[in-house]
Design a protein that fits this description.
Blueprint lengths: L1 E3 L4 E5 L6 E5 L3 E3 L8 E4 L7 E10 L2 E10 L2 E4 L9 E2 L4 E16 L2 E15 L2 E8 L10 E10 L2 E13 L2 E9 L1 H12 L2
Antiparallel strand pairs: 1-4, 2-3, 2-6, 3-5, 5-8, 6-7, 7-8, 7-9, 10-11, 10-13, 11-12, 12-15, 13-14, 14-15
Length: about 200
């Protein structure tokens, strides 16, 4: 089963234009890449604009490349798909909704500061996580320039505390890898992800 998780960053490379980075708005799944239904995405194109190119498709199994069309905020796979996922993710992942609170270290044009945030972890592995969060101002996006975040995540076995280094940040989504985690949390998370 091929699953494109909600919040995945998808890159569409079209001829004679800069690569377009899109965020999937809902989880989409199918037995094979070629059978994926249209993927709803966050796009800046107006209605009626059509783009065709090579899509870097992030799935729960890894990353693959396939020809795709973007039209009316929907990405559709075109033609023949590759036979397999090209890049495999090394760590088992667990999607879900795990409440989280923490403090983000932000560095941007305004300087360096700490910002409290609340949200939920929507995808977790022993390597990193995907966090959907807001700050105290409740704006629909996180402040630009988050370098790292100290998080307290409510997991099935109890609270997990980890320092997360930012890998990618889009709107209210932050993808990161662990810089530090309490020893007990590392063991429990490995068991939790392996039990899938």
């Amino acid at each position: 089963m091929i699953t494109v998780p909600a919040g995945s960053s998808l890159t569409l490379r079209c001829p004679d234009t800069q690569a377009i980075v899109l965020v999937s708005l809902a989880e989409v799944r199918a037995p094979f890449v070629a059978e994926l239904p249209p993927i709803p995405v966050l796009s800046l194109d107006g209605p009626g604009v059509r783009r065709i190119g090579v899509l870097e498709l992030v799935t729960a199994s890894g990353v693959t490349w396939v020809e795709a069309e973007l039209r009316n905020d929907q990405l559709s796979v075109l033609g023949d798909a590759p036979t397999d996922v090209v890049q495999r993710r090394g760590a088992a992942r667990r999607p879900g909704t795990y409440p989280a609170v923490g403090t983000a270290q932000v560095e941007n044009i305004d300087g360096r500061r700490l910002v409290p945030l609340t949200g939920r972890v929507e995808d977790i592995s022993i390597d990193g996580l995907l966090l959907r969060a807001t700050t105290d101002d409740n704006l629909p996006s996180l402040p630009y320039g988050i370098e790292r975040t100290l998080l307290h995540v409510s997991m099935p076995w109890g609270e997990m505390t980890a320092a997360v280094k930012t890998v990618d940040q889009r709107a209210d989504l932050l993808r990161g890898t662990y810089e530090w985690m309490e020893p007990k949390g590392t063991e429990e998370l490995a068991r939790f992800c392996a039990a899938r």
